[in-house]
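STRUCTURE:
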């Protein structure tokens, strides 16, 4: 998925078990995300991710989510797991994004952490290097906060009226009740959800996944 598509793109992130994957597939998700960041409660080991990836239909993109990964980590993961896109969710620079894309030959989603208008401005630097931008809430200043998946939302009006060379997705505090509003407010081409379809951190709820997918498509 290196170019925009003509419908609302929905990514179910933090897939760790087959029931969640099955719900994402049945609901028509475009992308499923496997998190290779050990501190996350949604971390999935490469062996498990390989099995889940193999069970994912070819029309659904498999996204590997990494936080400031070294090339060795990316290479070792890709040796074991077939991925279609790489998501960089750390403090990577535009130069690093371009380097990863060139070295591994896969489309890249780059996250941009947002809490104020100045944060949104930084997206311009990534728009040429990344295939997709992902706007997420800046991690809260508390012990144990993760780079993403904190169930925090940002002020969506900060994105209103903006446009970039790369299409963008919205994330952060989304659920079935607010995803339609988020898409309209931000002009995003799609939505990325993790905590909003869980019973507890890392425990996906198939019914919530189905509801989110339905709401995202209806509210676009």
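SEQUENCE:
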């Amino acid at each position: 998925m290196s170019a925009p598509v003509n419908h609302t793109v929905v990514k179910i992130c933090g897939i760790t078990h087959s029931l969640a994957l099955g719900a994402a597939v049945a609901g028509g998700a475009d992308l499923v995300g496997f998190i290779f960041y050990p501190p996350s409660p949604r971390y999935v080991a490469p062996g498990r991710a390989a099995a889940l990836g193999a069970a994912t239909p070819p029309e659904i993109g498999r996204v590997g989510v990494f936080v400031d990964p070294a090339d060795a980590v990316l290479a070792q993961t890709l040796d074991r797991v077939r991925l279609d896109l790489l998501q960089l969710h750390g403090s990577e620079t535009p130069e690093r994004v371009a380097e990863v894309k060139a070295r591994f030959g896969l489309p890249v989603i780059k996250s941009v952490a947002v809490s104020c208008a100045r944060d949104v401005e930084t997206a311009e630097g990534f728009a040429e290097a990344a295939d997709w931008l992902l706007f997420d809430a800046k991690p809260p200043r508390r012990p144990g906060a993760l780079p993403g998946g904190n169930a925090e939302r940002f002020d969506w009006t900060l994105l209103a009226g903006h446009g970039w060379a790369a299409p963008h997705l919205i994330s952060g505090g989304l659920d079935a009740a607010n995803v339609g509003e988020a898409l309209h407010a931000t002009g995003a081409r799609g939505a990325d959800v993790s905590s909003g379809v869980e019973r507890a951190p890392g425990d996906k709820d198939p019914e919530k996944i189905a509801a989110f997918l339905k709401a995202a498509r209806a509210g676009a």
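REMARK: The chain has a mean pLDDT of 91.
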